[in-house]
């Protein structure tokens, strides 16, 4: 991919693009559009992706199921896609800002979202608060670890938010696996599954040039510390040194600042890397 490559540095993240307004797109590499959508909570926005795919587009992640996001998508579809439809939706993981509108988009474009099985099943479990995903179990967990009653009660205010942020969920999906190669346009993207942020989180890596990471990458002192501690991702990218993966784009910076108070920073990044070793399944 010919792209505005981000040179990874040893000690700092770099952001080659300024953040653009939510509800708009910016091309960050040929045929790769960065979309920012608003979120009605502290993270403020979510980064999503449209990748040119022949006569249509492949969308990577969907945004939260709100009327605002639906309206903004409709504007983008009519304004920015050159009359070409969305032909595929890939969902990286089950969190509502990523899978939220998958059901709406599936119905709108007559498609089935591509995603891993654990993310699909976890989304349905969380939507219906079964399988240990409901707040009662979370409350027990926090209480056992000493959270005081006031904060336990405050945390419960969000009970049910997941369902409100994702309905209607798609009722079927096309399964993707770690190591799959997905042709999008004339490029091959490899599925890299990681565990921790979500049960079977799928990132997409394109031939040594781009990584659509899909979400959170905790950072310490300006460095993506979690990647260094995440063997499932790091090893699968076969990074020879941790700093080979460092360097992020501007679009993540706002969320970085917002996430600092929690000791972790929110990403949903398109990471453009200098010269990584191509990933291989392990
Ligand atoms: Zn997430």
List keywords for this structure.
282 residues; alpha+beta; Metallo-beta-lactamase, Chain A; five-stranded mixed sheet; five-stranded antiparallel sheet; 10 helices; 28% helix; globular; binds zinc ion
Structure overview:
This protein is α+β, with helices and mostly antiparallel strands. The chain has a domain of 188 residues: Metallo-beta-lactamase, Chain A (4-Layer Sandwich), CATH 3.60.15. It has ten helices and twelve strands. A five-stranded mixed sheet has the order 1-2-3-4-5. Helix 5 packs antiparallel against helix 6. The longest helix is centred in the N-terminal third of the chain and has 13 residues. It starts with 24 loop residues before the first strand and ends in a 10-residue tail after the last strand. The N terminus and C terminus are likely disordered. The protein binds zinc ion (ZN). Zinc ion binds next to loops.
Query: Low-confidence parts lasting 5 or more residues at pLDDT below 50?
Result: 1-10, 222-231, 238-267, 272-282
Task: Please give the CATH class of the domain at 25-212.
Answer: Alpha Beta
Overall pLDDT confidence? 78
Radius of gyration, taken over Cα atoms and rounded to an integer in Å = 18 Å
User: What's the architecture of the domain at 25-212, going by CATH?
Assistant: 4-Layer Sandwich
Topology:
Layout: E1 25-29, E2 32-38, E3 45-53, E4 56-60, H1 67-79, E5 86-90, H2 96-99, H3 102-109, E6 114-115, H4 117-127, H5 135-144, H6 149-156, H7 161-166, E7 174-175, E8 181-184, E9 187-194, E10 201-206, E11 210-212, H8 225-229, H9 231-237, H10 253-259, E12 270-272
Parallel strand pairs: 4-5, 6-7
Antiparallel strand pairs: 1-2, 2-3, 3-4, 8-9, 9-10, 10-11, 11-12
Helix pairs in contact: 5-6
């Amino acid at each position: 991919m010919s792209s505005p490559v981000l040179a990874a540095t040893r000690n700092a993240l770099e952001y080659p693009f300024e953040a653009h307004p939510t509800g708009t797109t910016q091309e960050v590499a040929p045929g790769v559009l960065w979309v920012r959508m608003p979120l009605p909570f502290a993270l403020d926005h979510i980064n999503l992706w449209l990748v040119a795919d022949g006569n249509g587009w492949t969308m990577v992640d969907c945004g939260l199921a709100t009327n605002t996001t639906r309206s903004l998508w409709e504007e983008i579809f009519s304004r920015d896609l050159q009359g070409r439809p969305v032909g595929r939706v890939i969902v990286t993981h089950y969190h509502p800002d990523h899978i939220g509108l998958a059901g709406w988009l599936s119905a709108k474009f007559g498609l089935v979202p591509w995603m891993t099985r654990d993310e699909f099943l976890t989304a349905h479990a969380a939507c219906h608060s079964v399988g240990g995903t409901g707040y009662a179990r979370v409350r027990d967990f926090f209480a056992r670890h000493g959270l005081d009653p006031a904060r336990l009660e405050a945390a419960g205010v969000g009970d049910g938010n997941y369902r409100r942020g994702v309905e209607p969920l798609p009722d079927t999906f096309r399964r993707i696996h770690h190591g799959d190669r997905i042709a999008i346009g004339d490029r091959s993207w490899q599925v890299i599954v990681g565990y921790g942020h979500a049960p079977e989180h799928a990132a997409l890596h394109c031939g040594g040039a781009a990584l659509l990471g899909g979400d959170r990458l905790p950072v310490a002192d300006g460095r993506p510390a979690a990647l260094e501690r995440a063997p499932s991702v790091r090893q699968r990218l076969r990074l020879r040194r941790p700093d080979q993966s460092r360097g992020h784009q501007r679009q993540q910076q706002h969320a970085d600042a917002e996430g600092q108070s929690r000791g972790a920073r929110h990403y949903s990044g398109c990471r453009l890397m200098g010269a990584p070793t191509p990933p291989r399944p392990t």
